[in-house]
Amino acid sequence: MTKFRILVSALILLLAAPPARADFTVVTTIKPLHSIVSAIMQDIGTPKLLIRSAGSPHGYKLKPSDARMIRSANLIFWIGPSFESRLAKAINQVRAKADVIEVSKIPDLKRYKMRGKHENHDSHNDLIDPHLWLSFTNARHIAGHVTQELSRLDRTNRSKYQINLNSFTNSITALKATLMKKLGPAHDKPFLVYHDAFQYFEKSFGLTNKGALMASPEQRPGAKHIAELRVLVREQHISCVFIEPQFSKKLVQTVIKGTAARIGELDPIGTKLAPGPKLYGEMMRNLATSFVDCLM
Predict the structure, then answer these.
(1) Domain segments of the chain: what residues?
(2) What pTM was computed for the model?
């Protein structure tokens, strides 16, 4: 009986013990990426989120607290210099002490070339659209790579990371099937976007994008291009022109004036959502709802 009581006591202590925690610091840049990493680290640790503001990540300015966060990191996940361009210098400075994962270089991702004219580059045809997370297929690959990196640093929790990966994969697989049905009636409805950030989502669901108002958020169109856009709206029977939360509606209002087109809103980074493991699914669900509400 003594051995039995010892065994029972040990089992009780094991069950009552707090869950294992990651003893290293993980930093992520944007909310969708933070959400994926959070889902894999759930009940083990919490990654830090660098960009919390509603502004565009393309032009995000590093604060002193951000620099300290980067310097404290053991593992950093970011899309890459083509997206968080102003973070590149600070992140490159810590590569000697931290593992830096450039998500845009993860193997097996579905990659599309940037569309339209990008005058700041010699050949835009060679540039990859960095909004990779807006594909469920890519999200699965990103989550799998995150799991590998975390398991390498934290072997104790490898099985938990794998369980979390399976849960995340199952949830987004089911969500994609739901959204496919929801977006079905909107397939042939033509629309314009404020800047060309959504082709991964559009191609996943067969949506009909006829163009973007701006080649990039930093390049405001001139009068000639605005006139061309107004003609495009009329000739292509554009149903909706989509704005993003951080941009003014004035340009869109000018482009659709006198037409039947409506203004919708698409948020590719979950600006208005609370950070955490649920954000990714909520963001993708909201995108689908925004398309349906404006196009139908």
Answers:
(1) 26-178, 180-295
(2) 0.88
